[in-house]
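for the recovery benchmark. tokens below, seq after
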């Protein structure tokens, strides 16, 4: 158990134990984590719309603070393009792992989707397997 949470309602000040109420924001903070389904991306003129990543049903009116992601490919694919999308908002991802606050304030209860595109070119791979991915959403109630 996290020591910070254990001591959330107590504060030690100069050796004296003083009661300290739990802040409402502590109780309303959370994180949901979703593994990303593996998928094969083939060379195409259009992005592949991935599977929807559903949040837990208990989020209610929670709002996003930060989103983190990570994924790997089975072969080097420098031309691979990726976007993280929620509803009609899509954020281009410059790296295969990272974090953003561009979704801050949006509903944490709305599903996400990763989109990929392997542009048509004269060299490189014609398909790549995306796997070992994870999406982490930090939110406040």
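predicted aa per position
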């Amino acid at each position: 158990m996290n020591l910070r949470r254990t001591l959330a309602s107590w504060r030690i000040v100069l050796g004296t134990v003083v009661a300290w109420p739990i802040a409402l924001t502590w109780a309303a903070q959370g994180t949901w984590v979703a593994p990303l389904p593996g998928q094969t991306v083939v060379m195409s003129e259009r992005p592949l719309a991935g599977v929807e990543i559903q949040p837990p049903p208990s989020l209610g009116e929670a709002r996003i603070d930060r989103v983190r992601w990570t994924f790997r490919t089975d072969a080097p694919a420098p031309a691979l393009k990726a976007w993280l999308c929620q509803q009609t908002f899509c954020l281009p991802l410059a790296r295969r792992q990272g974090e953003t606050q561009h979704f801050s304030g949006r509903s944490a209860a709305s599903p996400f989707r990763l989109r990929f595109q392997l542009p048509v070119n004269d060299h490189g791979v014609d398909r790549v397997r995306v796997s070992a991915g994870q999406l982490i959403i930090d939110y406040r109630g």
